[in-house]
Amino acid sequence: xxxxxxxxxxxxxxxxxxxxxxxxxxxxxxxxxxxxxxxxxxxxxxxxxxxxxxxxxxxxxxxxxxxxxxxxxxxxxxxxxxxxxxxxxxxxxxxxxxxxxxxxxxxxxxxxxxxxxxxxxxxxxxxxxxxxxxxxxxxxxxxxxxxxxxxxxxxxxxxxxxxxxxxxxxxxxxxxxxxxxxxxxxxxxxxxxxxxxxxxxxxxxxxxxxxxxxxxxxxxxxxxxxxxxxxxxxxxxxxxxxxxxxxxxxxxxxxxxxxxxxxxxxxxxxxxxxxxxxxxxxxxxxxxxxxxxxxxxxxxxxxxxxxxxxxxxxxxxxxxxxxxxxxxxxxxxxxxxxxxxxxxxxxxxxxxxxxxxxxxxxxxxxxxxxxxxxxxxxxxxxxxxxxxxxxxxxxxxxxxxxxxxxxxxxxxxxxxxxxxxxxxxxxxxxxxxxxxxxxxxxxxxxxxxxxxxxxxxxx
Length: 459
What we know:
Helix content: 25-40%
CATH class of the domain at 118-294: Mainly Alpha
Strand content: 5-15%
Strand order of the largest sheet: 1-2-3-4-6-5
Shape: globular
Number of helices: 10
Order of helices and strands: HEEEEHEEEHHEEEEHHHHHHEEEE
Radius of gyration: 23 Å
Structural class: alpha+beta
Largest sheet: 6 strands, antiparallel
Distance between the termini: 55 Å
Number of strands: 15
């Protein structure tokens, strides 16, 4: 079995003490856990997995958060008990309450109501100004309620806001939250991309959560996520100025101050400031929409181009994300931005798959043995069952494999790791990259997203 793992896995510490990879004790679809019947794995992280399950007694579907069995010790379980106790302190419309938390056999299970999607999922689709303002207000209200109870969340990000019917949103995952009366030293835990600079240094405070909220608001309006050193203006500011009122931009800018003392003291202060400018922002968005409809405002030619591309190729190429550098639509499996040529060796956004490759951070299915997007590590077989998928379009060319497990734009077979020989095409385009031979949308793109070479235009 040892030969199935790479040196990368050994160096990165992905194996547990018993030799299995993290998350090796995954529950299978149809497996019973007390009164719950497992239906799917929704997310698999470093320390726990979240499953969709059916409550056979109450007749409802729920989300089960279950720590990985091979990691559980007294301290680890105490951390999860801490999460449960913090969540139990909060009673608010925009905080996800816990239905139950208990041991079921060898598993420690935290039960939540099942939402429709995360804010990260919703942000991958177009949002109106009114929807952004509504979701932003709910997010700030949730964090403000936690701050009123002296709780610093420490992991504010779109994935931790769950949407329910009627666009009702609730904050969850208090796993690394800190209960404090003052700023305190901590471990620097959090999620890269949404973590405040001082929190990364191990000194979180209420102002750290404010910074993370500012990042979420900025991305909802602009489509871009600011990066270190967080100089103003960040990328995407032109789109922010088109959609947001100047007074609201001032609120976001104050939340994103690098020096904590210059930010709002807590989320309640930020909420008060946000609510004072919300009506102006709503009117601004309505006015901008009318101007565009009446043709009295000229649109950015690049945005027009992006919109045309989405209508033509968006569904076929699954362009759910925006390039952080230029704002152009990109897909999870693209290795370069086809608009500006910037590298996408890693996929830093959310994924539609239940797991991630630790090397390229692209999505994986639970029955894959290898990452099909990069020459990354192998994974322990969780189950001998092979899951079908309507996205599978081709068979592996390896005579010893010959499985119908290839999705468009895969580079390697996820079962045997054989390099894919098929030259993938872009549905709706006959053009090919002169360098790699894969399909391109040459009428729109400047660069090949598969090999990053500049596309030669026929003049």
